[in-house]
Amino acid sequence: MIEDISKKISWLREHPKLLTGIFRGIERETLRIKKNGDFSQTKHPYFLGSPLTHQWITTDFSENLLEFITPASNKIDDLLSFLTDIHCFTASNINDERMWPFSIPYSYNKNNNIQIAQYGNSNLGKMKSVYRTGLKNRYGDLINTISGVHYNFSLPLCFWKYWKTTEQKKNSFDYVSKGYLHLIRNYYRFGWIIPYLFGASPAIPSDFLNNSNTNIKYQFKKNKENIFYLPWSTSLRISNIGYTQTKILDLNIMFNNFDEYLTSLQKALDTPSRKFINIGLKDKKNNFQQLNTNFLQTENELYTQIRPKRNIKNGETPIEALKKRGIEYIEIRSLDINPFSPIGIDKNQILLLDLFLIWCALIDSPKTNKKDFILINKNWEKIIFEGRKPNQKMYIYNQNKTKKLIEISEIIFKDLKKIALILDKHSKNLEYQIVCEKMRLFFFNPQLTYSARILQLLIKEGIKKTGLYLSQKYYKKFINHNISNINKKILQQEVEYSHQKQTQIEKSDTLSFEEYIKNK
């Protein structure tokens, strides 16, 4: 099932410097709420900068859905420090509001409107808002306020060069893109380990339970707050209940070959969907209801557990950047907000993700077809809905049998420990080994997992009480935290600069919005 990678580990042990250039980035989403837990009805605060042009503080689907974006860094402590400073800066500029500490918006009030995020009067800004209007019309507005954490990860170029020596005669990015697709396939095969360990959305409000098939298949329990939960679930956020998910199987998007991936993605961007045609491109008042009627309005609508990425240049689309320069990094999208961390993620998670993603790059990665993906998705579903169930068994890829989850985890963690030894030896500390042993115990005692801990609080204290307590606790921590002088100055300058940049963009428009959309 999982190959013996002793030789690969030995190779890595001989070349430990190949892992010193790992770069990471974090994107954290969080809802602005009132003190009573209701959704904020105010616009994105002016003193946080322009959400259109600010590098690090923006909005996602709605006006009250904040998104914090860190610069890429090869130092974990610097990454977390900057993310903390963004939270502190934001807390000092949202007055009496707070930041909701969970992925799921449990305290939604039906009497409040969810306001689509606005980005000003430029064509670019209008396009971003219309895209979100399309998401609302396609999937609903409440479901698009579910929040998560995205973890961006890249291995150093020298790693791929040494590892894929047979590919060096091809284009400069061929072997890198091939390597990342190799990693992505393995993440699909074994990435369910992440929601098992870190999933933190084992419950969901009744508003989300509109999928009768799921409701019938799994017997939900209900608490006094009309919150539904499953006793062994881990991350309902990434299930077909809570996740705004475009199924890659339906779009026939596979990760076996770079050109085939790009072709299938382009087809999804260009092919009209009967379902979305029925929505209509415009309403009776001639207002756009979506950017287009295709399966995907833009590449960002491809919601998957992991996806290949490339930094874009001015005027480029994400797929154009990939076509020109190949895959630069991967984006992990299966992380719930960590409610036990003020900033939604902690160092232990990053250390474990590093180990696991390196492992995914090392082990064999057989190509997959639709039949394989169906089996792979069944394993994800098992973990999402019943991951902590005693003696849980998983399907074995390419074999007609199952194996106990704890047995598979032991095989994986045996390898992770070896990788941890290499990383710790080079950095002269024990942090990777410590976190590896700590997370390994989660499989022997599922009550240690984030989902079990938050579910216990939900049942004992109630989700609203717990959410408001944590949001207030973290708010006080942010307010009392001393932001580094450098970061404080950078963030203040970026606010001013972002507003200036938005004004420049608006003044530079020469096309009507209709013409602008046609040219996209």
TrEMBL record:
GO molecular function: ATP binding; glutamate-cysteine ligase activity; metal ion binding
Gene Ontology BP, a term: glutathione biosynthetic process
Highest taxon in the source lineage: Bacteria
Catalyzed reactions: L-cysteine + L-glutamate + ATP = gamma-L-glutamyl-L-cysteine + ADP + phosphate + H(+)
Keywords (A to Z) from UniProt: ATP-binding, Glutathione biosynthesis, Ligase, Nucleotide-binding
GO CC terms of this entry: cytosol
Broad EC category: ligase
Pfam families registered for this protein in UniProt: Glu_cys_ligase
Classification via InterPro entries: Gln_synth/guanido_kin_cat_dom (IPR014746), Glu_cys_ligase (IPR007370), Glut_cys_ligase (IPR006334)
Residue span, Glutamate--cysteine ligase domain: 12-383
SUPFAM superfamilies given in the database record: Glutamine synthetase/guanido kinase (SSF55931)
Record pathway: Sulfur metabolism; glutathione biosynthesis; glutathione from L-cysteine and L-glutamate: step 1/2
EC number: 6.3.2.2
PANTHER family noted in UniProt: GLUTAMATE--CYSTEINE LIGASE
Family label: Belongs to the glutamate--cysteine ligase type 1 family. Type 1 subfamily.
This protein's name: Glutamate--cysteine ligase
Organism: Buchnera aphidicola
Gene transcribed to yield this protein: gshA
